[in-house]
Design goal:
single chain; 19 helices; six-stranded mixed β-sheet; Jelly Rolls; alpha+beta
């Protein structure tokens, strides 16, 4: 119960105001927008933009609903709302309000205020599968157990690196400023765009087998995954629909698939274009990448460079956050040394390229090492690779704490860069650290500087060229098999568009998503694909391009039906075609002589590892003439099954 005395009013207005200001930041930084507006967590209906129509997503206004406050608290909050105008954030912005109350403006102090007031625990209830409040009792119990472990001291261990560039014109600083402005405008008028957060990862991030804490019997994956929790938490805490978090995790994949998707624009339609660009990208592939790579820096570098391709032509790139959620070593009887070396690569990469790093592994490590039989964050008895729901809640809270810290530090920096009279204090200007050469190349000091300058020039030229061509996606065909949820739906190419002749190949789109893909079903199965040498423009016209490579994402597995599984690919020129995907092969090639094979490749679908995994590879295509069509043949040369979930011709 909160006192209603005058003294109590002052205290509450100060601490609540402070908290609300800071957390409504980034699609992740909403934790504090409670300064005294109707954003406070009341018994109002909360509507999210999850995977169903808005009319189906109301949280019921009952004492059992997501948000509970007694009458005194409601009365007090309403009084604060009347005294402090609803437009306070619109009029002033977050940082001026935040910086006006020194003494409680650290991330820790704001977090503690939220814990004491109960807003953090209440907001955890805003989960995608709890929109009717039916899981309130279970989630309250689970969140109590999680918060008992995640003290502010423990959470601070996760802040491994904060990309606080001293350069006022840096992309990170410009993007945080833009995100805060987005929140300010949307808080005032919902016609403005939300803050967009895009999450890439494998099955741990997709939520595989996360329904385990407690006796809940649900599907093996879905709404209990932390990205859905994050969206619900941020919007509930803010009190308005400010954030959109899209979970693009695909089970059995690694970060090379995410690189392909970002490079070729295979992202949600709601996160494309100059008015709807993605604001924050979260790398959540550490569990999957740990199993496949010896050199972490290379694949991490590839990921953050690909994220840069989603930057608008005239604006800063998305903030890329590296999430290290590999908890010790999920192979329980194996040495933890490889995992510790893997963690150190994250730190080195983040510091070298000035990237935000959130180390959930540091948060959970003490608990796991203290009790290897614990089942709250990691369940070694049943599935040590995929976190139970308690682990997903813990990851979400760790990210939220880091978002809060990110905004708090950003606002602190403004105290220095902006003088008392509004003038700007000059700061040193540095080159963009994203384009530093890979540290593994062991360059000298002078070589680093020269390479850095050269890489920046190359990046600017590439961006300028892509922007003149209408964007980064210049592919005759680009497809990745996606889940069917609303946030994954977009009008993109599908293999059905280019399949001409098929013998024992099918395009599977039956639920669940693990079934999706282009599949060979028998020995000697063959399929022919017809590709135009053009790209589709926004007005549905087509422009000729030169196709330089084929990207393929395919499965490797271990069971008997996958034994000796192998695929041969031939890429042949078809001459000039007008983009008619249904043209028969015999008519599509008008050359009198047999066409030259421009590229060939062989791929194995079998491995000894007792798990199914996706691999992404690139095949160079040499000698393709501008605007010419291609005939691509996939033929099984061994085994009786093969599965493809991604193809690009660019």
């Amino acid at each position: 119960m909160i006192t209603t005395s005058h003294q109590g009013h002052s205290m509450i207005k100060g601490s609540l105001g402070m908290m609300k200001c800071v957390l409504v930041v980034l699609a992740l930084v909403v934790l504090a927008l409670m300064a005294g507006t109707n954003n406070m967590i009341l018994k109002y209906e909360y509507t999210s933009s999850n995977n169903a129509p808005a009319s189906d997503l109301h949280v019921k206004d009952t004492s059992d609903g997501i948000f509970t406050n007694d009458n005194d608290e409601l009365q007090l909050i309403n009084e604060i709302h009347q005294e402090e105008q609803t437009d306070i954030y619109y009029e002033m912005g977050i940082c001026p309000i935040f910086n006006s109350k020194p003494g409680i403006n650290s991330a820790t102090s704001l977090w503690v205020e939220g814990l004491k007031a109960g807003y953090i625990k209440d907001s955890i209830l805003a989960a995608p599968d709890n929109l009717d409040g039916s899981l309130n009792a279970h989630l309250r119990d689970l969140s109590t157990r999680v918060l008992a472990v995640l003290s502010p001291t423990i959470l601070r261990r996760s802040i491994h690196h904060f990309a606080a560039s001293p350069n006022e014109g840096s992309d990170n600083r410009r993007k945080i400023t833009a995100i805060l402005e987005k929140l300010r405008l949307r808080h005032h008028d919902k016609k403005h765009d939300k803050v967009k957060i895009l999450v890439f990862g494998g099955s741990p991030t997709a939520g595989s087998n996360c329904y385990r804490n407690g006796a809940l019997k649900k599907d093996k994956s879905g709404p209990c995954a932390w990205p859905g929790h994050l969206e619900g938490f941020l919007n509930a805490y803010a009190g308005f629909d400010a954030f959109e978090v899209v979970n693009y995790a695909i089970g059995a994949s690694d970060s090379s698939l995410a690189v392909t998707m970002m490079q070729h624009g295979l992202v949600p339609e709601s996160m494309k274009g100059p008015d709807h660009e993605v604001d924050i990208i979260i790398y959540a592939y550490s569990v999957n990448d740990f199993e496949r790579y010896d050199n972490s820096a290379n694949f991490l570098h590839d990921f953050v460079v690909a994220a840069d391709s989603l930057a608008p032509c005239d604006g800063p790139r998305p903030i890329t956050i590296l999430l290290d959620d590999l908890v010790v070593n999920f192979h329980r009887n194996h040495s933890i040394d490889p995992a510790e070396k893997f963690h150190s690569e994250f730190v080195k990469m983040a510091q070298w390229h000035d990237l935000p790093l959130v180390s959930y592994s540091n948060v959970a490590k003490s608990l796991v090492l203290h009790n290897t039989s614990e089942e709250l964050f990691v369940d070694y008895k049943k599935d040590s690779k995929h976190a139970p729901r308690g682990g997903h809640i813990a990851i979400m809270l760790t990210l939220a704490f880091n978002f809060l810290n990110m905004v708090q530090q950003h606002c602190d920096d403004l105290l220095y860069t902006t003088g008392e009279n509004g003038e700007n204090n000059k700061t040193s200007t540095f080159m963009d650290p994203l384009h530093l050469p890979l540290i593994e190349s062991n360059p000298s000091l002078d070589a680093v500087t020269e390479s850095w300058k050269s890489r920046i020039v190359d990046a600017k030229e590439k961006k300028s060229k892509n922007c003149k061509n209408g964007g980064n996606k210049r592919c005759a065909f680009a497809w990745v098999a996606m889940r069917k949820e609303k946030e994954h739906y977009h009008h993109v190419d599908t293999p059905q568009d280019i399949m001409a002749e098929s013998q024992d190949w099918v395009l599977d789109s039956t639920w669940p998503p693990t079934n999706y893909g282009l599949k060979a079903l028998k020995e000697n199965a063959t399929v022919q694909l017809l590709l135009p040498g053009t790209v589709r423009n926004e007005d549905d016209s087509r422009t000729g391009i030169q196709i330089e490579s084929m990207g393929i994402t395919y499965m490797k597995s271990y069971s008997e039906k996958w034994y000796n599984s192998s695929l041969h690919v031939d890429v042949i020129s078809r001459g000039n075609v007008d983009g008619n995907f249904t043209m028969p092969i015999s008519e599509g090639n008008s050359m009198s002589n047999s066409p030259a094979i421009l590229a060939s490749g062989n791929y194995s679908g079998f491995h000894e590892t007792h798990t199914s995994e996706y691999y992404t590879e690139s095949l160079d295509i040499h000698g393709h003439q501008f605007g010419e069509g291609l005939n691509v043949t996939f033929r099984m040369t061994g085994g009786s099954t093969f599965k493809i979930i991604g193809l690009t011709f660019c």
